[in-house]
Design brief:
The protein is mainly α. Helix content is 70%, strand content 0%. The protein has one domain. The two termini are 21 Å apart.
């Protein structure tokens, strides 16, 4: 399981880094075309916007496991360990219910837009809108693995014995 998890993390990180690199590259090319060649690329902004959606969608679950989501833990962290665990499980179940609703209605919405096309790229809007479903499903997977089974839990920077930089 540990090797599978490490391969998954490496794949997600590689996708996110590559996606951001493509976004950066397209942005530079767009600036050169617009201000040097005086000929704007009509597809560049749309590609960057949709690629950013997918980078966020794929990377969101891993961000959850790394504790990079905003959370109000001040009161929960003051509870005794048993009560803290119960609060974490209740929160996880509530998150899973919300994410299930988003997956369901997101799928219905994405499927309903499958015949619409992005203006510049000509891509079906299904592939843009389904990114929300993918993000919700991946976050739900991480909630289950992290909160309920402790599998995907990563060391938080402040808890790492070597300091914040080593944890990253």
């Amino acid at each position: 399981m540990h090797k599978l998890w490490r391969a998954y993390v490496a794949g997600v990180e590689a996708f996110c880094f590559a996606g951001v690199a493509v976004i950066l590259g397209v942005a530079v090319v767009q600036v050169v075309f617009r201000y040097v060649l005086h000929n704007s690329l009509v597809w560049s902004e749309e590609l960057m916007r949709y690629l950013m959606l997918w980078v966020v969608a794929v990377g969101s679950g891993l961000s959850f496991s790394r504790g990079q989501f905003l959370g109000m833990r001040m009161l929960v962290d003051r509870l005794p360990p048993e009560a803290r665990r119960i609060a974490d499980i209740v929160a996880a179940v509530l998150m899973l219910v919300l994410l299930a609703v988003v997956v369901w209605y997101g799928t219905v919405f994405a499927w309903g837009t499958r015949q619409q096309s992005a203006i510049a790229l000509g891509l079906s809007m299904f592939w843009i809108h389904v990114s929300v479903v993918v993000a919700s499903a991946l976050i739900a997977l991480h909630v289950v693995l992290n909160e309920l089974f402790g599998v995907a839990r990563e060391v938080r920077a402040e808890d790492h014995p070597m300091g914040a930089e080593e944890a990253l």
